[in-house]
């Protein structure tokens, strides 16, 4: 899993940096050298898709995605387990659909040799972002579900001494990871 | 194969019933939408509701993206669309031939080519990509607006920042003309023109008019530099699966709807130009001699693209 | 029926702790499956792809990145020091400092919780030290942070422009300009509420006034030094807004220029630690971006269902059937949005409600700019209303309160913000006069 962490992080870092540099270089060239290569925007927006889906996978692992936890928090040990299993299955269903149909989309684009409008690049290469991201999301969802199920067992064995403190601790640890969301 | 639609056996014997989805690029006030609506109404009426077409504006069926709409039409997740051939060039660069620079002098030439061999060849090309063309509509000749200078010759264009569609041919062309072309998503164009991030843009009159570009642009040059045809397309697999009667019905009503769209586009365009002028735009129509200068300037484009478009296809489009 | 399936399954999934993005997509997929079977799932991937691959949305990662950079290189601390030096010694000065800094950081950051994170770490402890109760401190910072999405740059306003842009021409520039005055008004509302709480607590004897006087007045030299140190931060909004309205950049480009500016400033401030921090900044921003964009992606599928299944017209017929009085409908819509905002995030709310509500607004002749701004204020309030409020969670952990305590503490600020919300809703000129004055269309 360490390798997967690095894999995701490296993709995200390179992608984000590339988007930033291309966009900035474009402004410079337009304002200073009077030469616009804004046709590169089709690369940046496709990279944004890559950033989104790979980032989503890392976000799953970091518990960064927004959700409503009140029912879960109030549930007992068994209830928590049931909720973890059901919600994970639902997430897995979605990511499977994105993987399968994303792959079909890629195949179709290959078949009709669809290209990007400005650069004439094969669209399917860029579209791989979606099935790739979906695959990573699948792995991460399983990983997190297993971790959470273990955590529920551990917590209940220690008995719930101080719920209030625990809540704060969880919130703090999320804060430390810097997962601050809009 | 027709994902966005359901097809089930109708009550009246062998006749199948259809609920089809159609996408157009622009909004509900447009001639595109009206043409699509006419097709939907006519088909529903003539089949007593057996075949229904629901029309969606602003490419809502593909998340607002025209390229994705064309892809969806080709694979069958969208049943029918009205899309420009410029968009189709993501499937094959040959579609760009219809928009070749200063190819047509007037609409009579356009009509002749599309009714003749040129139209047939594009239709064959579409069929290869999984699209059956029911007819050709019209976005119109693309015209130039800008905030700096009344453009009459290529000299006037030097150094202007012009927003163009993100297609390689246009980029090459506007470089050849001496401008500094920029691609930009259309939703940002108004702002960019207003703030002076770019100086001008090019689009058919209807787009210029409905986006109220006259509020941020002073000059309009009616140079008819690039023709922009629309394809009224239906997914070919869906079309092929239909009964012969239904095929004939779609071919007839599709052609009528496309012709209707062309007719109202042309009627409106004349009024819209007048209105734009009334709102303070300087409208300039270059003379035949001036157009000749432009034509000579863009000759290198023909040299570069003849091999891409194919000599046969270009010849069919140059036939007069 | 379709509407009930869609919203019913969405709410059920949310209750089961399924992430909002997944809930949006899966409830849409359920409806798609019922009406078309498996054959239509390719629509899901198509729309999830294209809804993200949009140039206008590129501004979002850049504004997130700019905010994270500014926070990591200590710009927020410098801004706080400067505000403290100016007004910190007054009675209730820390309330004013908090609101001022929040308004100012809002002009750098495009997101609410990011604003809370940037300012809360220093200001919440400072307020508690000044004698305020911790839930008041947390509540004020949670609510003040929400100004981040009202004052430009704003991810929320970009999303509104994109979603509303399907129906009407509306520019990010106009929305950005329109958000300034209402955002400041919310700040004033929060300041008034904060002073009210302070005075109330003094009367009740639960406010330690002797602590408040510990901050002495700064000398001119101290003020000047604080100003100099705050300059890098103070310049940021000038670059962003000046760049956009001066015609140098589009909003997306302004965002990337802000990033570059932050990266260059960071090099001077962080020196040796720079590259290590840089990597962290990018990864953290990437995850934050993904959290936003995956909701954009999934919510677009939801909006597709709302459109293709004619849910929008069903709902609007119901709403317009209740009353034909514009003011009553506006009130009704605000109530619906406040309730929705209590449970879901702002971006989902835009994708779900704009396709439904915008046609109603146009029919009632409500200026779309005004609609965009009051809807944004509404959803900003949602950021600090329980049970689901991101700002609230962030501020609760910073103020070491639990969600129930902070919910009590934030109540006065919720009330104040709702009053401002109604003022902005019913007096459209507050929103429109600034963009109209400057001719921003
Ligand atoms: Na902001
Ligand atoms: Na809330």
UniProtKB/TrEMBL annotation, chain A:
Organism: Ureibacillus acetophenoni
Pfam family, one: DctQ
Subcellular location: Cell inner membrane
Transmembrane spans: 7-28, 43-61, 82-103, 123-142
GO molecular function, one term: transmembrane transporter activity
UniProt keywords, alphabetically: Cell inner membrane, Cell membrane, Membrane, Transmembrane, Transmembrane helix, Transport
The protein's name: TRAP-type C4-dicarboxylate transport system permease small subunit
Domain annotation Tripartite ATP-independent periplasmic transporters DctQ component: ranges: 19-149
Highest classification ranks of the organism: Bacteria, Bacillati, Bacillota, Bacilli, Bacillales
InterPro entries: DctQ, TRAP_DctQ
One example of a Gene Ontology biological process annotation: C4-dicarboxylate transport
Family, similarity comment: Belongs to the TRAP transporter small permease family.
GO cellular component: plasma membrane
Topological type in the membrane: Multi-pass membrane protein
UniProtKB/TrEMBL annotation, chain C:
Segments passing through the bilayer: 6-34, 55-75, 95-128, 140-163, 175-197, 226-248, 254-270, 282-307, 327-358, 370-390, 410-434
Boundaries of every TRAP C4-dicarboxylate transport system permease DctM subunit domain copy: 7-428
UniProt KW Membrane keyword: yes
Keywords: Cell inner membrane, Cell membrane, Membrane, Transmembrane, Transmembrane helix
InterPro entries xref list: DctM, TRAP_DctM
GO molecular function, one term: transmembrane transporter activity
Pfam families listed in its UniProt record: DctM
One annotated Gene Ontology cellular component of this protein: plasma membrane
Subcellular localization: Cell inner membrane
Domain of life: Bacteria
UniProt topology in membrane: Multi-pass membrane protein
Name under which the protein is recorded: C4-dicarboxylate transporter DctM subunit
UniProt source species: Ureibacillus acetophenoni
């Amino acid at each position: 899993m360490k390798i997967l962490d690095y894999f995701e992080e490296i993709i995200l870092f390179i992608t984000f940096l590339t988007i930033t540099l291309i966009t900035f270089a474009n402004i410079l060239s337009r304002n200073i050298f009077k030469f616009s290569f804004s046709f590169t925007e089709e690369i940046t927006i496709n990279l944004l898709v890559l950033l989104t889906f790979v980032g989503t996978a890392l976000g799953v692992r970091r518990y960064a995605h927004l959700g409503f936890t009140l029912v879960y928090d109030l549930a007992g040990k068994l209830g928590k387990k049931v909720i973890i299993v059901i919600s994970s299955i639902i997430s897995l269903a979605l990511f499977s659909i994105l993987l399968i149909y994303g792959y079909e989309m890629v195949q179709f684009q290959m078949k009709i040799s669809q290209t990007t409008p400005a650069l004439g690049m094969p669209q399917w290469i860029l579209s791989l972002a979606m099935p790739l991201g979906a695959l990573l999301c699948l792995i991460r969802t399983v990983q997190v579900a297993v971790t959470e199920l273990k955590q529920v067992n551990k917590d209940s064995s220690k008995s719930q001494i101080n719920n209030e403190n625990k809540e704060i601790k969880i919130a703090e640890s999320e804060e430390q990871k810097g997962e601050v969301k809009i | 194969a027709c994902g966005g639609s359901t097809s089930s056996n109708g009550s009246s014997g062998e006749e199948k019933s259809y609920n089809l989805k159609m996408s157009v690029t622009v909004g509900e006030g447009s001639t595109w939408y009206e043409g699509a609506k006419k097709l939907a109404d006519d088909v529903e009426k003539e089949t007593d509701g057996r075949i229904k077409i629901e029309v969606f504006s602003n490419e809502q069926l593909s998340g607002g993206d025209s390229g994705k709409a064309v892809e969806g039409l080709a694979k069958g997740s969208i049943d029918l669309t009205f899309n420009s051939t410029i968009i189709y060039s993501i499937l094959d660069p040959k579609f760009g031939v219809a928009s070749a620079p200063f190819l047509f002098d007037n609409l009579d030439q356009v009509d002749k080519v599309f009714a003749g061999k040129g139209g047939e060849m594009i239709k064959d090309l579409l069929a290869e990509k999984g699209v059956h063309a029911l007819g050709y509509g019209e976005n119109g000749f693309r015209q130039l607006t800008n905030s700096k200078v009344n453009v009459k010759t290529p000299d006037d264009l030097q150094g202007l920042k012009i927003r163009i569609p993100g297609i390689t041919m246009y980029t090459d062309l506007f470089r050849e003309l001496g401008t500094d072309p920029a691609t930009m998503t259309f939703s940002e164009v108004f702002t960019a023109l207003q703030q002076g991030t770019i100086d001008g843009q090019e689009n058919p009159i209807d787009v210029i008019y409905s986006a109220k570009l006259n509020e941020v642009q002073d000059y309009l040059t009616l140079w008819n530099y690039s023709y922009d045809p629309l394809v009224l397309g239906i997914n070919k697999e869906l079309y092929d699966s239909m009964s012969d009667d239904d095929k004939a019905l779609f071919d007839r009503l599709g052609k009528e709807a496309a012709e209707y769209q062309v007719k109202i586009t042309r009627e409106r365009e004349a009024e819209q130009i007048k209105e734009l002028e009334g709102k303070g735009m300087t409208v300039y129509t270059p003379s035949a001699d001036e157009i000749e200068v432009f034509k000579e300037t863009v000759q290198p484009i023909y040299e570069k693209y003849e091999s891409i478009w194919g000599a046969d296809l270009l010849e069919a489009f140059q036939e007069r | 029926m379709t509407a009930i399936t869609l919203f019913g399954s969405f709410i059920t999934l949310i209750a089961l702790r399924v992430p909002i993005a997944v809930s949006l997509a899966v409830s849409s997929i359920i409806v798609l499956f019922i009406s078309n079977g498996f054959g239509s799932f390719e629509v899901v991937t198509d729309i999830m792809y294209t809804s993200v691959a949009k140039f206008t949305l590129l501004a979002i990662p850049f504004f997130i990145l700019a905010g994270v950079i500014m926070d990591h290189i200590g710009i927020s601390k410098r801004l706080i020091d400067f505000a403290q030096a100016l007004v910190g010694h007054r009675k209730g000065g820390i309330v004013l400092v908090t609101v001022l800094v929040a308004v100012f950081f809002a002009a750098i950051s495009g997101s609410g919780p990011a604003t809370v994170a940037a300012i809360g770490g220093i200001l919440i402890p400072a307020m508690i030290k000044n004698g305020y109760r911790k839930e008041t401190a947390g509540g004020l910072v949670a609510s003040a942070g929400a100004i981040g999405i009202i004052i430009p740059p704003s991810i929320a306003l970009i999303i509104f422009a994109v979603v509303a842009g399907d129906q009407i021409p509306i520019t990010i520039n106009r929305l950005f300009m329109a958000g300034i005055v209402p955002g400041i008004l919310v700040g004033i509302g929060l300041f008034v509420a904060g002073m009210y709480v302070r005075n109330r607590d003094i009367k009740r004897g639960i406010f330690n006034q002797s602590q408040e006087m510990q901050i002495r007045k700064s000398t001119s030299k101290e003020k000047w030094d604080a100003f100099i140190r705050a300059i890098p931060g103070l310049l940021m909004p000038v670059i962003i807004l000046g760049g956009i309205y001066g015609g140098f950049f589009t909003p997306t480009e302004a965002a990337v220029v802000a990033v570059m500016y932050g990266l260059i400033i960071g090099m001077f401030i962080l020196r040796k630690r720079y590259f290590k921090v840089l990597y962290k900044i990018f990864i953290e921003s990437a995850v934050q971006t993904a959290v936003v964009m995956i909701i954009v992606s999934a919510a677009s599928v939801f909006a597709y269902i709302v459109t293709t299944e004619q849910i929008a017209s069903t709902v609007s017929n119901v709403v317009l059937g209740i009353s034909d009085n514009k003011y009553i409908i506006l009130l009704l819509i605000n109530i619906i949005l406040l309730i929705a905002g209590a449970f879901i995030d702002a971006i989902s709310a835009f994708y779900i409600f704009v396709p439904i509500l915008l046609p109603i607004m146009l029919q009632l002749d409500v200026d779309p700019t005004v609609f965009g701004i009051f809807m944004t204020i509404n959803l900003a309030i949602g950021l600090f209303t329980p049970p689901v409020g991101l700002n609230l969670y962030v501020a609760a952990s910073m103020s070491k309160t639990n969600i129930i305590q902070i919910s009590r503490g934030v109540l006065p600020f919720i009330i104040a913000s709702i009053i401002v919300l109604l003022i902005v809703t019913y007096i459209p000129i507050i929103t429109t006069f600034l963009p109209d004055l400057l001719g921003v269309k």
